[in-house]
Amino acid sequence: MSEVVLKAENISKLYKMGDVTVKALENVSFEVKRGEFIVILGPSGSGKSTLLNIVGGMDTPTSGEVYFNGDMITGISDKELTMYRRNEIGFVFQFYNLMATLTAKENVELAAEICRDPIDIEEVLEAVGLGSRMDNFPSQMSGGEQQRVAIARAVAKNPQILLCDEPTGALDFETGISILRVLKEMNEKYNKTVVVITHNASIAQMADKVIKMRSGKITEVIINDDPIPAERIDW
Ligand SMILES: Nc1ncnc2c1ncn2[C@@H]1O[C@H](COP(=O)(O)OP(=O)(O)OP(=O)(O)O)[C@@H](O)[C@H]1O
C-alpha cells in the first residue's frame, strides 16, 4: 500500500466577523498518498484556498489536525512550521508571484538556497522548458513562461508536495494545458506529490483522485483509475 504523505482530519475553519460566523471549512478529512496527482475541485467560496493554506502550514484550523508523513503539524511552533513550509512544500499560485527585479534563474535560486536539499537549478529550468530563458526577467516573459518559472522555483526546493492554487487560472486554454503538462512531468520525473485546486472541472480528468468541495465540505472523493494526459483534456 502506498504511503500517506498528507492527512487532514476533521478540519474546520471559522471566521467570526461581528455577529456573523463564516464556516469556511467544516469537518474536512482526506488523505494524499505519495506520488499522487490530486485535484481539489469546487466553486468559488467552497473553501479550497483555505484548505490549501492550512495543509501548507500558512494558516491554522479552528479545529482538527493535519499530519505530514504521520507527524502532526497542527500546533507545532512557528519555527517548525517555517521549516515545514520551506523544506517540504512547494507553492504555485495563480499570479506567479515572481520577483520582478530578478531573472528567472535568480528567482529560482533565491527560493532554493535556503532549503535543505535543493535540486540543480539549471536542470529544473531545463525540465520546465526554459533552458534558453534563464537570464530573462519576468517582464520579458509570457504568463505561461512566468508560471513555468514559478513551478521551477517550487520544484528546485525539492519538496515532497507541490500545492498549486489555480495554476492555470490566469492563462488561456493552450497555455493552461502546457502548464498542466509541466506539473504532470514534475509529478513523474521528480516523484513530486501534486495537489491542484481549481474550479475548472475539466482538469479533474487528469487526476488520480478528485476531491469535490462545496460550502466548506467535501461532497465526493473520486478515484480515477484511468487519468488522461493533460493534452487530451477537453476544456
Ligand atoms: N480571512 C477571511 N476572513 C473572513 N472570511 C474568509 C476569510 N478567508 C476566507 N473567507 C471565507 O471563507 C470561505 C471560503 O473561502 P476560500 O477562499 O477558501 O474559497 P475558494 O474555494 O478558494 O474560493 P475561490 O475559488 O474564489 O478562491 C468564503 O466564504 C470566504 O469568504
From TrEMBL:
GO molecular function, one term: ATP binding
Alphabetical list of InterPro entries matching this protein: AAA+_ATPase (IPR003593), ABC_transporter-like_ATP-bd (IPR003439), ABC_transporter-like_CS (IPR017871), MacB-like_ATP-bd (IPR017911), P-loop_NTPase (IPR027417)
Keywords, comma-separated and alphabetical: ATP-binding, Nucleotide-binding, Transport
Presence of the UniProt keyword Hydrolase in the record: no
SMART domains linked: AAA
An annotated GO cellular component: membrane protein complex
Domain ABC transporter: start-end pairs: 6-235
Family (UniProt): Belongs to the ABC transporter superfamily.
Protein name per the record: Putative ABC transport system ATP-binding protein
